[in-house]
Amino acid sequence: MTNEYETRTGTVIIGAGQTGLAAAYHLAKRGLPFLILDADERVGDHWRNHWDSLRLFSPAKVDGLPGMAFPASPFHFPSGREMGGYLEAYAHRFGFPIESATTVEHVSLAEDGSFEIAAGSRRIRADQVIVATGAFREPRVPAIADSLDASIRQLHSTEYRNPSQLRDGPVLVVGLSHSGADIAVELSQTRPTYLSGTAAGQFPINVTDTKRSLLGWLVVRFLATRVFTLGTPMGRRMAPHIRKGGAPLLRVRSGDLQAAGVIRYDARTTGVADGKPMLADGRVLDVANVIWATGFRPDYGLIDVPGFVGEDGWPVGPRGVSTAAAGLYFLGIPFQWAFGSMNVFGAGRDARFVVDRIAERVTERHPKAVLGTVPA
Predict the structure, then answer these.
(1) What is the pTM for the complete model shown?
(2) By residue range, what is the domain housing residue 284?
(3) Contacts of 114 (CB under 8 A, 6+ apart)
């Protein structure tokens, strides 16, 4: 429906994280019009709002987006706040049209095949939409959380910032993946720390021990971008597990947990006994705090297009190109093409593939259109 608030553009990008900004870069380089809508107050806030001690798994040498290197020594591992600042500087350098503090509530198909985007009182029409809201949007917390004693302090990993948030006494971290392992090691420095869950293996190379060897990191990157992909049998076997939250341990691995004194239980936390968390093996843990590092579930509720997600909740289509509606694209899907898709260094490749498809669509619909390269 057209009204006084309506704007029309070629492509709307929903989300100004690393994938959305990488897509903006490639659209701008091709001279294709676009608009970015982002829910955060400032570009990069999603990274700033992680726990205080968070550091990326990849060094600054490969953490830059297309057209702009990360401003740090090559083997510095950026903090979440540093990454947030970099994304803000990146958007400013290229002058991308971004409307911050703008929450997209609804995306639907219009009668002419374009998309109508509703954001508050705004109504925006676009020929294409790139949904770059990322995978980590809807925290998953088990139902048993409601049955724990009220005296136990509970936080999901998205709410955790530092140990000062917790009550005195032991803590149980539920979930053995990236965030669970990182947080457990930090908490073990100040209190008894239990960790429940089974790891989905661990990366064959210590990704943060690459300062000693450039070759070591080159191997890591090669595996993450060339071997573990949907184009190889190994990658296709790995992808469903990654999308379910079963990523292998990267920075903090089994030996690091043991060295830090974290008490590990392979049994999952599955119940409650006398208000306390109970493991699947019947063990009851007397703790004052629980951190739910239990991952996220896909949340694409803003998209009103029939059949755009599969049974697993993820968008259907090759490498983020929706098969449900022409002109609908996604970025930030775990293992969108490769294991590296969930890392900053994988954002540029995934974004370029999607933008290439948009450029093809534009030239097919408008054969006389001339797509040029806009100088950076």
Answers:
(1) 0.92
(2) 140-292
(3) 125, 126, 127, 327
